[in-house]
Amino acid sequence: MLAAAPLLALVSLTSAAVIERQADAGIKTLLVFGDSYSDECNAWRIQQTPEVQAQYPFPQCPPAPEGRASGGYQWPEYVRNNTGMNVFNYASSGATCNNTLFPRGLEASDGQTVWNPDVGMQIDQMVLGHRQGEAFDFDVSTAVAAIFIGTNDLTFFVGKFQDSRSNDTRPIPGTTVVDHTGCILNKVNILYRLGVRHFLVFNKIPLHYTQLFSWDDVQGYGYRIQQNGALIANFIEELVISSNALQALQLPALQASLPDSSIETFDTFNFYWDLITNPQRSFGPDANVHDFCNVCPGPEGSDGNCTRCENPQDYLLFDQLHPSERSGQLLAEAVVQKLQSRA
What we know:
This protein is α/β, with parallel strands linked by helices.
């Protein structure tokens, strides 16, 4: 069942042809920080042999879809390829805003668990790779920092993912959605002190519509068998809406406190809601926004014998949680349009 969309301005789409013809003349570099919704192979690198571990300079990414959760190329890759912008992507699958609040581990190639790079660690990687003395090797005055984080943070409150270090299904005791939002603001502050002045902060997608949290487990993925799907869906929806509302209230005040800064929200929630409620416009007559493309049987998809759909371009979701490559392509178009509107 579709709930009413929040009263936030919808982000309209632009065509790929428009993207190819023009990128925002004032923005030359896009810095991406986040999780599997943006990662184009950083977590993959960490899981490789020590010889190709993710230490800067990074090894080259493998061809899509390997290392990507979308089943194909990710939205930052479309921005890079279609606009010619410098896109430096530090997002890592499974990442949270802060491992101190929401600790997430990642299994490396030697079987050891290492910290999944949170947004703070991703910023450190940017500094390590691009700062020479007091200056960066790109013009920060024409750079935008895109922060797209929060799905893994919020799942801690639902107890969906266990941290492999602690086997704890909850965040650090006392941690709330307010702390998560505060973390995002803190990362904007850190980047500002490093010289970045332009920011695009994504809010959360409608997670209650993904199969991982949906009240209606149309494909029998497994999570709903032992848990109350309706309760989980309602809870994650409340978390998402609360987090997005807090972010919308706090970012303008943060901008006012940082001279010469420009901090804008990308309304990811309503971007995806528009795809859900008007699917034929973006995915064509065979649009499928109810199922997901890559189905892996067994509890939590554990047996690995996945079956992929024959027409992935028709799907909103690639798997139970992640948007498809086509969704990412549309997201890239909308992001570029947002950057163009800054001119």
